[in-house]
Design brief:
- Helix content is about 35%, strand content about 15%.
- The chain contains five helices and four strands.
- The strands form two sheets. A two-stranded parallel ribbon has the order 1-4. A two-stranded antiparallel sheet has the order 2-3.
- β2 and β3 form a beta hairpin.
- The longest helix has 13 residues.
- The chain is globular, with a radius of gyration of 18 Å.
């Protein structure tokens, strides 16, 4: 949301882009890959469209599965679409935003503290 920026306002979204790589390594538990169904409606009578995760991956890739999962976790308000536009997913490790990356997830203080704690425990 951009709460760390001095121009933050709750009514606007001032956040940064999120780049996710290696989406092709996404794993699901159980039989979700064949049984999970994504539904959408075209707003016409009888317009319910259903697609399994297996078919969605074959048509659009694993990035779309991740995008739908993140979409379900975001608040259902007018800023949701803007936040999803800033989510970039890539199937492999290469992406166009390498020069813009400020920090990797593994470099966040919580992860560093957790890694130090597990090393100290061993």
């Amino acid at each position: 949301m951009g709460k760390h920026k001095p121009i933050y306002s709750p009514a606007s979204d001032c956040g940064d882009y999120v780049v996710v790589t290696n989406c092709n390594l996404l794993k699901t538990s159980g039989n979700k890959f064949k049984q999970k169904i994504y539904r959408k409606h075209t707003q016409t009578p009888g317009g319910l469209k259903e697609m399994t995760m297996e078919r969605l991956v074959s048509k659009k890739g694993y990035g779309e599965v991740l995008r739908k999962a993140v979409s379900g976790m975001l608040p259902k308000n007018r800023l949701r679409k803007l936040r999803l536009e800033r989510l970039r997913t890539f199937e492999g490790p290469e992406h166009d935003y390498q020069q813009n990356v400020i920090r990797f997830w593994a470099e966040t203080p919580e992860v560093i503290k957790a890694n130090e704690w597990t090393k100290a425990k061993e």
